[in-house]
Specification:
alpha/beta; Rossmann fold; 5-stranded parallel sheet; 18% strand
Length: 184
């Protein structure tokens, strides 16, 4: 994924994305689509870790969805803060990925509200406007997200390995009893 400041996100994805009518669509039994791209199937019987992805950029959502589903995670996409709130109210999730800057509901507002409504669910904040440098008076948006309740942060562009590592860390921490310390 590639993100340039104030220009949005671009995705360069090396995995295949199937298009409507493509033989791979039928082979994968894709039942629904997201902005014209078929969704990968999820077995309702499987007890997979459930991830809520909240981002207004459909290409970022598709790239994250494909990456996570290939690793055996169940993924729900919400195309903004309001849609994310509806999904959170209607489903159960093990981890959330939330973009900080989205139209209609600012990501900071989403992060604060998501954390208030589901404080036990780890929240990973994502942003292309990530860190302030010493040469720039810009605020450190990801640090601010941590202060509002985010468990971890990812700076766009991030690699699939960074995404998977961050999610695994959050899932591992959520599974540990709060009163026990981590083994050395």
């Amino acid at each position: 994924m590639h993100t340039a400041v104030q220009t949005g996100s671009r995705v360069a994805f090396s995995h295949f994305l199937v298009e409507k009518g493509d033989p791979l669509t039928k082979a994968a039994n894709c039942e629904c689509e997201y902005n014209g791209f078929p969704r990968l199937p999820v077995s309702k019987e499987a007890n997979l870790p459930r991830v809520l992805v909240v981002d207004d950029d459909p290409m970022v959502c598709i790239a994250i969805e494909v990456c996570l589903r290939r690793q055996g995670l169940e993924v729900t996409i919400a195309d903004g803060g309001d849609a994310g709130m509806r999904e959170l109210a209607s489903g159960e999730f093990d981890v959330m990925l939330v973009d900080i800057f989205m139209p209609h509901m600012r990501g900071f507002e989403s992060i604060r509200i998501f954390h208030e409504r589901a404080p036990a669910i780890p929240l990973i904040a994502m942003s292309g406007y990530a860190f302030a440098s010493s040469a720039s008076p810009s605020p450190d948006f990801l640090r601010m997200a941590l202060e509002l309740g985010a468990t971890r942060c990812l700076r766009k562009p991030f690699t699939p390995d960074a995404l998977l590592t961050t999610i695994r860390e959050c899932l591992g921490e959520a599974a540990q009893p709060k009163d026990k310390k981590e083994a050395p």
